[in-house]
Amino acid sequence: MWLVAVLSGCSESVSAPAAMNTSVSVRTAPVQLGGERSEPLRFAGIVQARQRATLTFQVSGTLRERPVELGEQVAEGQTLARLYNPGLEPARDSARARLQELRTQLDQAGREWRRSQSLFERGVVSEQALEQLAARRDALQASVSTARASLAEAERMVAESTLKAPFSGRIEALLVESGEFVSAGQPVARLSSPSGQEVEVRVPAYLLGQVRLGDAVKVWSVQAREQAPVTGTVVEIAQPSGLRGELHAVLVNLPEHTLDAGVPVEVGIAASDRTTLSVPLLSVMRSPSGTSVFRVAADGDRPTAERVDVAVRRIVGEQALLEEGGLQRGDRVVYAGMTRVTPGDALEVLP
Q1: Fewer CB within 10 Å, N side or C side of the chain?
Q2: What is the mean pLDDT of residues 9-16?
Q3: Element (H, E) at 110
Q4: What is the reported pTM?
């Protein structure tokens, strides 16, 4: 029914046969791939830094120090905040002392084994006693390795009480004030790098097949619509899922120094088929067999009108996407003046 409504104004009208050797003036358009010409659908998004991070502590405690301010530029490795946890440093010191104790016992066990080895060779110490000393030495060696790992873990926990910038950038947000209790994994600050921008938009599943990695897409600033659009590059495409109505992410990289982070934009994605032929919607008309177009055919040196039946798959903007049929890419079809055309008429193609 939708096709009947759209094409009702394009129905073929019956006209008197053209006079002999009289050409009908028409305008034509080429048959193209659907992906070549289509008005892009626009999807809203917000420009964000390409490199960004929400920073957290891996341990809990009270925020003791926060030497940075909102909006401040920081360098990689710079201290952003320090946490106070009364149990971290004592645990580290205890692990360090335990390791030193076991190392001392291991050294003593090694000396005892070497003395007993000498006595065993002279027949003073039994083989069983020597084996017991060797077993104790080996057990202490394993205990030293365990204590060394425990100390390394305790030292890492102490280091985790200091939050440092993972890269150079600007402080976007400070989410905790000094003196507040912070849980492990709780966001403390947001950091972003000014070195690149991107925008993420969410599109229906059927459009995922219309974009490919590396495609160039237009990006319009909502706040400055008079400006020319920026050309971005598709770098990530989500995989479709089975959830009904779910939108899927498409990530677009923006050129350097074009749009600032936080700017609302619209990203254009063409809803067209890269392998389906398209013709102007005005060229499609009703016919006794359904829908058809007039293709420009050559009759000697004179172009003539040839009716070709077509099946419309979908309408995108002012283009009709067609099912496979009698048309080929590069054919020309009549889109203006066809109400005066009948099959076989000579045509005068206007520029």
Answers
A1: C
A2: 45
A3: helix 88-121
A4: 0.56
Distance, C-alpha 299 to centroid of its chain: 53
Q: What is the mean pLDDT of residues 32-42?
A: 67
Side chain identity at residue 218, one-letter code: K
Distance separating alpha carbons of residues 345 and 18, to the nearest angstrom: 7
Residue 339 has what DSSP assignment?
G
Instruction: List the Cα angle 264/269/272 in 5-degree steps.
Output: 160
Taking all residues of the chain, what is their mean pLDDT, rounded to a whole number? 85
Residue of 167 and 342 predicted with greater confidence: 167
Contact 350, 303 (CB under 8 A): no
Residue labelled with tokens 């073929």: 12
When pLDDT is cut at 50, 70 and 90, the band that residue 15 belongs to is: very low
Strand pairing class (332-336; 52-56):
unpaired
Surface-to-core class of residue 111, CB atoms within 10 Å of its CB (0-12 exposed, 13-18 middle, 19+ buried): exposed
What is each CA distance from 338 to 265, 284, 342, in whole angstroms? 41, 10, 8
Alpha-carbon distance 308 to 323, whole Å? 13
DSSP three-state, residue 243: coil
Report the SS3 class of residue 341: coil
